Amino acid sequence: MSTATKRKRVVKEIFDDFSLPKEGEQIVKVVCSKGNNLHEVMTAEGDLFLASMPTKFRKIFWIKRGDYVVVEPIDEGYKVKAEIVSMLYKDRIKYIKEEGQWPQAFDKKTAISVAHILEDLLPPSDDSGDEDTAPMVVNSNRVQLEYQEESEEETDEEEES
């Protein structure tokens, strides 16, 4: 099977499949991408862990922060605890909500924003909030050039010569 045929089959599988998550699978929200086809996801209960994207989805689908995916837990992972089974788009999310299997925690009215979670994970800063008085950071990787302004007398002398 050619690469184009495989790609078409995978795209059709994702967009045309309106099945509900099977037993053992769960709907999670992507919090951030960690690189190397790993994504940090959050469950409806608020648990954070890494999920890997299988090779059949790579270079075909791109996942961004805030997207919803269906994951299946894997046993051999210590840090990576799940593998992405399917991506959820608007039509499929609407279908799952109609069937009553959408997690209540992911409803827009009751959802915890990702920004608040990330703020809780970051250590408090020592800044006093006075950003205007902070000194400018000098980029030491740039060559420091000094510009000399010529006086009017010097430019007049050069023009006369």
TrEMBL record:
Domain (S1-like) ranges: 5-89
GO molecular-function terms, A-Z: RNA binding; translation initiation factor activity
Chain segments carrying region Disordered: 122-161
Keyword Protein biosynthesis: yes
SUPFAM superfamilies reported in the protein's UniProt record: Nucleic acid-binding proteins
Superkingdom assignment: Eukaryota
Keywords per UniProt: Initiation factor, Protein biosynthesis, RNA-binding
Ranges of compositional bias, category Acidic residues: 147-161
PROSITE patterns: S1_IF1_TYPE (PS50832)
UniProt keyword Protein biosynthesis, yes or no: yes
Family under the similarity heading: Belongs to the EIF1AD family.
Protein name in UniProt: Probable RNA-binding protein EIF1AD
